Amino acid sequence: AGAVAGAAAYARWRRRSMRVLITIGASLLGIGFVIMAGAPVLAVAIVGAACAGIGNGMESVSSRTIMQELVAEQWMALMMSLQESVLQSVPGAAILIGGTITALGSPRAALGVAGAGSLVIASLIWVMLRDLRPRAEATGVVPVPPAQDDLAHSDGAVTDARPEHAPTSAAGHQ
Length: 174
Prior knowledge:
single chain; mainly alpha; 2 strands
């Protein structure tokens, strides 16, 4: 349920920068793990799990969206499959690392390490994505304002308002 709520939160705030959304998602994931690690009762652990789930949903949807916005179309299939392959390997690695920490320490220690790691990753995301520019800005294409999906012109023509269909300079139409 938390991941669904996180995806819904992304949908609600999708106009914010991807840097902000991904960082919030990673931070909520870390905060949730830390809450679970220190939870004195089950109800508090459930709150932590919900927080982590919301963060997971936000981060997951945001990172896939940013990949689609930044990668050139001819590289999209390769990059999306690479991203998905890496994401599929993470749970296996987490099971090995978390199991080792649990065996040497405790489940709370494993959750604490996961929380600290997620918060470090959130900080790195914030720093690493500071100069992030959407593909349209990086290539000089000026997007049509996204007021509506289709904008009617005075001559009756309809233009798709999505950035990838935005008009470019005359040089781009050779």
